[in-house]
Design goal:
Elements: E1 24-29, E2 35-38, H1 40-46, H2 50-53, H3 58-61, H4 68-80, E3 85-90, E4 98-105, E5 113-121, H5 125-135, H6 142-153, E6 160-166, H7 167-172, E7 184-193, H8 198-204, E8 210-213, H9 218-225, E9 229-231, H10 236-243, H11 246-252, E10 257-265, E11 268-277, H12 286-323, E12 334-341, E13 351-358, E14 362-370, H13 375-393, H14 398-410, E15 419-427, E16 432-438, E17 444-446, E18 452-454, E19 472-476, E20 482-486, H15 498-513, H16 520-534, E21 539-546
Antiparallel strand pairs: 1-2, 1-5, 3-4, 4-5, 6-7, 6-11, 7-8, 9-10, 10-11, 12-21, 13-14, 14-15, 15-16, 16-19, 17-18, 17-20, 20-21
Helix pairs in contact: 5-12, 6-12, 13-14, 15-16
Length: 548
Amino acid sequence: MVSQTARSSDAELPRRHEPDLADLATFTLDAKGRITSWSVTATRMFGHPARAAAGQDVCDVLMTGPGQRGLVSRALAEVAAGQVHTSTVAGGSLGDGRFAIRWEPLDGLGGGAMVVVQRAWPQPAPSWLREASARIGSSLDLAETAAEVAGAAVPGFADLAIIYVAERLLAAGEFAAERAAHGVAVRRLAGRHAGQPADVAAKLARPSEVLVLGPGTPGARAMATGAAVLFDHLDAETAQRLARHPIASQMAASYTSYLAMPLIARGAVVGCAIFGRAPASPPFSEGDVLLAGELASRAAVCLDNARLYDRERRTARALQQGLLPGRTKIPDGLEVAHRYLPVGDSMVGGDWHDIVPLPGGRAALIVGDAMGHGPEAAAVMVQLRAAAHTLAALDLPPELMLGKLDAMAAGLAAAPFAATCVYAVIDPAGGSCLISQAGHHPPVLVLPGGTTRVLNLPPGLPLGLGEERFETSRVSLPPGSVLALYTDGLVESRTRTLDAGMTALLDSLAGALADPSASLDAACQKVTQMPHEHSDDDMTIVLARIRS
């Protein structure tokens, strides 16, 4: 045990060899919190020479601020139990700024702790903001972005950070400012507590939980006024809500200074951030509000970008799922598989396909392609698919069905370009198929054993030209044969000719379906895999097999 009497010189204290870093210092403590070694960088950072620090209680040398003695007791207790303790401390004899402190168990010499202190803030504002800017917005996922914001704030700026976004913004895509008298519904996206792992913080502040910030609460006031709100205790409503979770309530009681910061993007308040500091840290000041404003400005834009991306992704996904054939009852004697791959980052384009059960154990197969891709083609495709499904369910002859679809397409104001379609009515019992085309690529017939044949059918004109005259052909389908309907993205691209694409398609179909028992789903995946890597258009394929 080291005597509490100060040693006569710096040389008498053991020193650790360490980098000469101005913002990093180390020292060691015995089990009672008395300083047993003091580094050169600790002297440089805090101004105390080793001879003055030796043997002194760390609470008398450094941790003299409010609540800091209790923090030291907790840290030493955890270290004695073999655990590492981390905390963020400011004020007292530490001087200006905030310091991230790591307390590690020190084996030997009766125990104690190795203490590593790093200056967390203030740093030159531009570098701190550059670090935050680089950290926030790396993802377009809304929850991940919120977690990045919370992680950028803790522990460098605060001991607590909770990120909320306006629920109306997520649900309706717009935010109408609500008066503070009515409160505001928000969704909690992320929470972070200094010294607590992310999973523990998630349990205490459950992400995606929707709650109402009641009238007069700091968060509601910040969102209603668009201005920061400083406060030193929780409002009664929040305290009552936290009381239902004892651990969360206990942790909340350890914070004595709070800051509610509105998140404003593109002129609209999209949410708010709540920051908190423990007694060991200095209360929030007006200077902190300015720094929080810089962080909030960056955070709000990134959160709104993620929100907009999430909305578009959910819209496209819902549209795409709605356009896929439902759980249609496939007639006995027939197997059907299909695959749709949009081009690039689009989730939906101009391709569509459908399967419609018909009387007598028959089924109608439809594959269409509104020229182009992206939202414009998707808008045309949605209308054509709905019309085609309705017309097919009427069990019209194929040529009449395409004629009516053509007339409908010609009247679409949103269709500045044509669309193609192939319509096939398969009769498994009769081993035949009636097919009519509207400017579409001809189907491919794959016979048992893998022999392929491109069907020679009247091509017809694309939909939307007002042709209204189409021809129907009857094709024999032997048992075990497969009919393949597809869109041009599977066989055409800027980097290869149509002939080369058709040859590749026939070879892929022959290889994938040479075995009569081969899976149609696996065949769809194999046929589309290689073209998709080089395609610049959506691609769709539908395979229908007559059971042997």
